[in-house]
Amino acid sequence: xxxxxxxxxxxxxxxxxxxxxxxxxxxxxxxxxxxxxxxxxxxxxxxxxxxxxxxxxxxxxxxxxxxxxxxxxxxxxxxxxxxxxxxxxxxxxxxxxxxxxxxxxxxxxxxxxxxxx
Length: 117
Prior knowledge:
Layout: E1 3-7, E2 10-13, E3 18-25, E4 33-39, E5 46-52, E6 58-60, E7 68-73, E8 78-83, E9 92-100, E10 103-107, E11 111-116
Parallel strand pairs: 2-11
Antiparallel strand pairs: 1-3, 3-8, 4-5, 4-9, 5-6, 7-8, 9-10, 9-11
């Protein structure tokens, strides 16, 4: 079992930055992938970024490329999402997830990010 706890959300002005953290309890294996998703009010949940726990390869949604950076710190079992140049349209609940054998089986409770214009 893996439990995920996000932190770092908040209110920021457009153009500002935030760093989200996702702390995982339980063993994270090298064949896992960790990801961030977001869901804005009235919209479907969408993929933001992911990172392979083993080799560190990263993937991003086109909407955040060049602005967001996902990283991991194995010693702390933690994944980060550095968000720069934030826009009002980035406002959403951001959730961390762990992918095991092709499916995102574990989810955090989410953290609110609000970007004011």
